[in-house]
Amino acid sequence: MDLRRLRTGEWVLAAAGVALLVSLFLPWYSPGLSGWEAFTVLDVVLALIAASAIAVLPVTATQSVPAVPMALDSLVALLGIAATVLVAVRALVLPDAAAGREWALWVGLAGAASVAAGALLAMRDERLPQARRHTDHTGLPAAPPAPIETLPAPPGDRAT
Questions:
Q1: Average pLDDT, consecutive stretches of 10 residues, N- to C-terminus, the chain (160 residues)
Q2: Number of folded domains that form the chain
Q3: What is the value of pTM for the model shown?
């Protein structure tokens, strides 16, 4: 596990996933209905999206190639957009048992939107190595490449 592989987008993504997951336990609607109490299936969907956002952090830190984290960032970006739409709809349309909106609903909406934004930020971050520093394909320091050896032309008989 190498934390140097983590970019700003992954940290934002994990923090947004934690915020979304924690908000499900807080009151979304009055009288004191949490996200778990107010929804039937949506709460599980949002919890899975939050868990996938949190999972990006250890996956990125443990992978030696950037393909797997980039693929996961792409999937989580789509899930984050879907979560944002789902929470926005639930912010506009109150459940039957709810009398009003509470503050955790807005935390959940911000968390869902931040999951999408963090994933898009992580996908966009293409760090280049610092000047005169040799790195491997993951951006970690590496030994400089061997110098190119020039070879003489092979001796041969040319037919004319």
A1: 77 93 90 84 93 91 81 92 93 83 91 93 68 64 80 74
A2: 1
A3: 0.74
